Amino acid sequence: MPELPEVESARGVIERAGLERRIVAVDDSDTYVCRPHAPGQIRAALLGRRLTAAHRRGKSMWCDTSLAGRGRAPGPALGLHLGMSGKIVIADPDGAEIDGGDYWEGRRLPGDFRWSRFALTFADGGRLLLVDPRRLGRVRLDPPVEGLGPDAAAIRPGEFRARLASGTAPVKAKLLDQQVIAGIGNLLADEILWLARINPGRRADELDRPDLDRLLRGTRRALDAALRNGGVHTLGLIPFRKTGALCPRDGAPMARSTVGGRTSWWCAREQAT
Fold first, then answer.
1. 256/241 Cα distance (integer angstroms)
2. Position 99 confidence tier, pLDDT thresholds 50, 70, 90
3. Cβ proximity of 174 and 211 under 8 Å
4. 122-126, long-range: CB < 8 A, 24+ apart
């Protein structure tokens, strides 16, 4: 599942190359990706408008849209969710392409958009596409984002500690709860807990101030690294999340279990309890 760094990559592509271009056509024919909207509903809402800003909170991304024609009201927000393998691709008439989102380089040739699930065509001939091999992305108007917690990349230290340290749920489950903190998925959570040397199954209400401070530093360090290097697949622990692997920090065996409903890996020595 794309996590905060992949969604930020896609948002940046739209911000750099997709704004203030008039929309003249919309392909919203995929009824699964565009649910609950009927074919043509998103098209009718967006024709003649422009994307004016691209936003992200956690793993959720949406774009503001402009007035259309002589209308006085701004258009609806366009929500774009990448699913498990989605990318935002902006293709220009001259053949130039930029993309951002989940990591699946090498699965297509330039210009091969067989997995396009949604597309905007601009007046200059360029296009914005949601390319999604697994068809698990989502496009909808005015997506609900008000229930999300604060963004993991921007949360303040005091709020981080307050949100994470309450309740009896395992700390990993708290990290994964998008209503607590938005943007952390399974791979980021394992990296954060490994950096903090905290067992993923430890109860949240048992964490003390030093534990929480290490978790905050681990969150910032993991996010910075993933944003800088191209996604969560580049994180240091990823190659060691497998049977028989040894912790890259101390050489102890990597342990595996299910925590918060997700497969979890940790160092059997430094994260033992």
1. 8
2. confident
3. no
4. 122/21, 122/22, 122/23, 122/24, 123/21, 123/22, 123/23, 123/24, 124/21, 124/92, 124/93, 125/92, 125/93, 126/21, 126/90, 126/91, 126/92, 126/93
Indicate whether 148 belongs to any domain. Answer: no
Cα–Cα dist 139/197, whole Å: 38
3-state SS, one letter per residue, for 66-121: CCCCCCCCCCCCEEEECCCCCEEEEECCCCCEEEEECCCCCCCCCCCCCCEEEEEE
Residue 240 has phi, psi (to 5 degrees) of: -105, 5
Q: What is the pLDDT of residues 192-248, one digit of tens each?
A: 999 999 999 999 999 999 999 999 999 999 999 999 998 999 999 999 999 999 999
Range 173-182 average pLDDT: 96
Whether the CB-CB separation of 165 and 212 falls below 8 Å is answered with: yes
Q: Do both 19 and 134 map to the same domain? A: yes
Residue with tokens 């040397």: 197
* Domains: count for the chain: 2
Asked if residue 126 and residue 100 are part of one domain, the reply reads yes
The pTM assigned to this predicted structure is 0.91
At 16 the three-state DSSP class reads: helix
Do 175 and 260 share a domain, yes or no?
A: yes
Range of the domain at 10: 4-141
* pLDDT for position 72: 67
Structural element, H or E, at residue 186: helix 186-196
Q: Which two tokens stand for residue 41?
A: 């509903």
* 94-103: average pLDDT: 83
What span, in angstroms and rounded, lies between the C-alpha atoms of 203 and 95?
52
- Kindly tell me the sign of the dihedral angle through the C-alpha atoms of 192, 194, 195, 200: positive
Q: Which of 79, 122, 80 is nearest to 102 (CA)?
A: 80
